[in-house]
TrEMBL record:
Residues 17-314 form the NADP-dependent oxidoreductase domain. Keywords: NADP, Oxidoreductase. This is Predicted oxidoreductase. It comes from the Bacteria. It comes from Microlunatus soli.
Amino acid sequence: MEFRYLGNSGLKISEVSYGNWVTHGSQVEADAAKVCVNAALDAGITTFDTADVYANTAAEKILGDALAGQRRESLEIFTKVYFPTGPKGHNDTGLSRKHIMESINGSLSRLQTDYVDLYQCHRFDYETPLEETMQAFADIVRQGKALYIGVSEWTSDQLRRGHKLATELGFQLVSNQPQYSMLYRVIEGEVVPTSKELGISQVVFSPIAQGVLTGKYKPGQEPPAGSRATDPNGGSDFIKRLLKDDLLERIQKLAPVAADEGLSMAQLAVAWVLTNDNVATAITGGSKPEQVTDNAAAAGKKLSPETLSTIDEILGDAVESDPARTAQTSPKSRLA
């Protein structure tokens, strides 16, 4: 495993991390989840990402149980706040001071820790004054409940506003967590240049595009049994838009590219996002330990310029790169 600094801070994190977005508490049961977490630890992964909304808080609980007994100082644990949790009442969502303060306490209890290394705004809240949100995060940092603050899927303008307030309030805004893969590059035009200017890293999710970039989904064929595309608990909802024959045919052409680099297709996808020097870590998942191990082996792999060019040629206009897509990820209303 190799490590990178998180934004303009002294914190190092593993450049391949493990996240439990649509696995723990839904697709994968607790015992299997613990096996996957142990596989991540064995592979040298020290950075673990979750959120209170994942499986309506169950994912945090499962991750906390799986990491119990590990040396806390050797881990970097990330979680997030914004989306509805619990009974989903009128104050059980958003980035109000009330919801943030109540949510951090719940997350720490479920994760069985006194602090998280990174606490993240899961989206931008258009209905709460940004000053209120950032003041709440400043207080959480001063209380020692979070060491650093990050955001997720914020636009370049939102990053500038958040960074300015954080600086005025005396804490660091060090990261942004966007979707990023060789198929989805919308952050490259505006978010990445702004982040570099401000000292903010990307903590990217879906580098393997929900497993599509592994090549296991074949054009004209039914998805493999037990894959995310067949998950009845919501996993299939996130992947179905990618299961188009013309795209799957292009992805199959990446197999010899990966082979020439001595990589699996999953490793090629993870190594690709890590070529962006603004990316601090690629969050990978996995419902089986061998998937976790395979993903982690992408750490430190360097792709040649020729390989990068070939990938661009194969994917062509299948790549999504419109910067405006970032602004569409945050609900304009908490009830939306």
